[in-house]
Amino acid sequence: MTPQAASVLELFRLRGAYLEGHFRLTSGLHSSQYLQSALVLQYPEAAEELGRRLASELRRLTRSPADLVVSPALGGLIIGHEVARALGARFLFTERDGPGRQMALRRGFQVERGQNAVVVEDVITTGGSTREVREVVEAAGARVLAAGSLIDRSGGQADIGVPRVALATLAVSTHDPDQCPLCAQGIPVVKPGSRPC
Fold first, then answer.
1. CB-based contacts of 20, cutoff 8 Å, min separation 6
2. Tell me: domain 3-184, CATH 2.130.10.10, correct?
3. Following DSSP, what letter does each residue of 31-98 receive, concatenated?
4. Which residues of 80-103 are buried (b: 16+ CB within 10 A; e: fewer)?
5. pLDDT in tens, 51-86
6. pTM (2 decimals)?
7. pLDDT tens-place string over residues 13-32
């Protein structure tokens, strides 16, 4: 583990944001570990510092400057805004909309054809939300250069279709609900994130 990754995880632990128990993740999978980024990002100085670090990593990964940073609501809002500030880019976010609860740009947000964008999320597990945001941005005519997250829970395995970087990478076991050993033990599941159980 790099010193940067260790310092990010230590910050999560110090703020009580690295939780252990039985959790239902945004992806629907179950896990014994949960990273509650909001407990870290509620402190402006921490959010600003992490945003600068992630912006620096994204600059190294891309050859062209980003015009836009786009994040999924709700988890990516604060860190996406801080990365946009550090990059000197505009910040937009997507929200789930309509009967299928698909990601969409709302609130009058516009993407211009040919703009360069990066997608920023707080935590990636399967990459599903980040991939959805990338697809929305590309459908609007922008080019997604890369993606970034504070934490990658996939052990580097999540594929979102563009190069990506994380400040810390973990290999955390996840389980389908019907094959979850924690469920089999009768341990109640908790959903601390942005979507209800």
1. 32, 33, 34
2. no
3. EEEEE-THHHHTSHHHHHHHHHHHHHHHHHH-SS--SEEEEETTTTHHHHHHHHHHHT-EEEEEEEET
4. bbbbbbbbebebbbbebeeeeeeb
5. 999 999 999 999 889 999 999 988 899 999 999 999
6. 0.87
7. 999 999 889 999 877 889 99
